[in-house]
Amino acid sequence: MEYEQRSSRLGYREFRRHWRSLAAVTIAASFGFPTLAFFSIGIFAPIMAETFDWSFSAMMGGITLASVVILLCGPAVGRMIDRRGPRRIAVLSLAASGLSYMTLALSSGSLAQYYVSWALLSLTGIGATAISFTHIINTYFQERRGLALGIALSSSGLSAMIVKPLAGVAIALFGWREAILLIGFLPLLIGVPALLWGVPKDSASLGGQASKLERQSMEGVSLRQAFSQRPFWILLAAFAAIAFANGAPIPNLENILKTHNFAAADIIGLTSLIGASLIVGRVLGGWLIDHFWAPLIGLVLLICAACGCWLLSQQGLSNFEAMMAVILLSLAAGVEYDLLSFLVARYLGRRNYGAIYSMLFGVFAISTGFGPVVLGGFYDRQGSYAVGLFICAVLLVAAGFTLLTLGRYPKLPQASDE
């Protein structure tokens, strides 16, 4: 009891001491990569597909291309973050990715040009991903790491709540090209100033805490050792399936609902639930993984997402069923990044967190990128998403049970133990 009370006090002090860093990361990550692009492409895809006569699978190919870039470049960026710190890399990346996003407004009907814009966005944005943002949170929070990660990564929900309505209004007032320019300006206008305000210059401004935090971050395995660890491969397999199956429906959601003959106003209302549900999923999920065994929490949330996919695959979908499907999908999507970050820190440690997490994040990203394309391909060929959504449901349940094989949290070695 005394230990629990002391732990609770420590957790409270973490939030009191580092609230600015937590707030800054939450704000900046809302406009980071691939969050901004992921939650805005669904708004622009139907317009661009109709304007240029592109298929939905071709449109979603931009996400796939971005995922390949993350997979190839993520480990190098992760090692750079481990050495030089995440703040400066995230600031530069946020600014450059915003400018790169604006090049989508120059689309002229050439898919090659469209993919070049996505490649540029990916290369410039890779430093403003969860690799940087979770690194900051894991540095400052130990006792309440799950909740802190949940709050910080609820940024995806904030992004969905801000970007989708803002893009819709901008399109109606000015046109889709002008809307893209506006969305691309958000990282520079909001994200960069937030990080500069709230996150201290890497380690240097932490004063007497610097050496302590650095010692705390030394527990864990090396990158080479991680490859021989069973948890690494379990996480790789489970989150590849999670990313594919839970990432596939959301960018296609507007069109999925359209196939169920929902009116445009109803579709906007239903998809607006994504943002709030993501926030609830991340904060609630973060609190739960602090207090219960994280793999079990993951299984429960993935079963919820599987139920959402199954509902969307049914004929004669009612408004209530559609609402429940969107909420269930978004709750699980709201916890996947922080669950991965938490599990990496608990099973593999923080000594080489950037390098290890970036490799898993790269696989996660490429699976997320292929999911929307494959699901869009089902629609292009069959005129229905039903089979693809059912496959997603099966993968989500299988991934949840795979997480259970991680076993108990291990005692991780210190650098001095090697």
Question: What does the model show?
Answer:
The longest helix is centred in the C-terminal third of the chain and has 30 residues, at 353-382. The chain contains 20 helices and no strands. With 418 residues, it is an all-alpha fold. It is 79% helix and 0% strand. It has helices at 2-29, 35-52, 56-84, 86-102, 111-125, 130-140, 145-153, 155-173, 176-198, 209-216, 223-227, 230-247, 249-259, 264-271, 273-291, 294-312, 319-333, 336-347, 353-382, 386-403.
Shape: globular
Main β-sheet description:
none
What CATH calls the topology is Growth Hormone, Chain: A
- Oligomeric nature of the chains: single chain
In CATH, what is the homologous superfamily?
A: MFS general substrate transporter like domains
Structural class: mainly alpha
Gap between N and C termini, in Å? 34 Å
SSE pattern, N- to C-terminal: HHHHHHHHHHHHHHHHHHHH
CATH architecture: Up-down Bundle
Report Rg: 20 Å
Helical coverage, percent range: over 70%
In terms of DSSP E residues, the strand content is: under 5%
* Regions with little confidence, pLDDT below 50 for 5+ residues: 1-7, 203-213
CATH level 1 name: Mainly Alpha
Give the helix tally.
20
Would you tell me the overall average pLDDT?
83
Q: Please report the total strand number as a whole number.
A: 0
What is the count of structural domains?
A: 1
